[in-house]
Design goal:
Layout: H1 6-15, H2 30-37, H3 45-57, H4 59-79
Helix pairs in contact: 1-3, 2-3, 3-4
Length: 95
């Protein structure tokens, strides 16, 4: 939460690797906090490190999360970037 250097983050994860699976009061994991609150990209060193530890802790959870994330991103893309309720940009589903 204090945006510490990646080396500090790595030391914390080595000491407590299960920390990557904890949720805050908003139901965000450390990965979610980095991506949503701090808007870090997937290639940011802190995000890469968190994902590495998440995969070590629970590979099945990562696969499930990725499936959900792709579904949500597809739905958002279908409605366009704006927050309106227009169906104008909706993609057709394959037959």
């Amino acid at each position: 939460m204090q945006q510490a250097d990646v080396t500090v983050l790595e030391r914390l994860l080595k000491a407590f690797p299960g920390g990557v699976l904890l949720w805050d009061k908003h139901l965000l994991t450390p990965y979610g906090i980095l991506r949503t609150r701090f808007r870090l990209q997937t290639r940011d060193p802190a995000v890469v490190l968190i994902r590495k530890y998440m995969q070590k802790q629970n590979p099945a959870l990562i696969r499930f999360r990725n499936t959900l994330q792709f579904l949500v991103e597809d739905v958002k893309a279908g409605f366009g970037r704006d927050e309106g309720h227009s169906l104008k940009g909706m993609k057709k589903l394959p037959q």
